[in-house]
Amino acid sequence: MDVSREEFYDRENIAFAPMGFCFPGQDKKGGDLPPRKECAPAWRNQVFDAMPELDLVILVGGYAQKWHLEKRAYPTLTETVTHWRDYIDCAPALLPIPHPSWRNNGWLKKQDWFESQTVPWMQARIRTILEG
Fold it and tell me: pTM of this prediction?
């Protein structure tokens, strides 16, 4: 995101909304289990309705992408993230990205365009929003 620690934790400018407000547990390999299916329908729309001034929603991972993009999401995370430009001309802009996890290092190496195109766009957009 290329923001300072103060900017990152300034709740007037940046908000985090997980798919579930409960920790779903871990799988046998130590990774997080998927969000529980009942969580997002119970609260997600209410949270976003309470924030009408959103300029950018970063959709971190496949679950967030499928929830927000619905039928506009491609069958795979890679396809959805590859077509990120399809979602940025709306209000708020929707930016699908992979989950920042050590498990995705291989994905990032194979998708070198993500670091050279998507990340700079995201950083510039965030800077523009913060400098308002």
Answer: 0.92
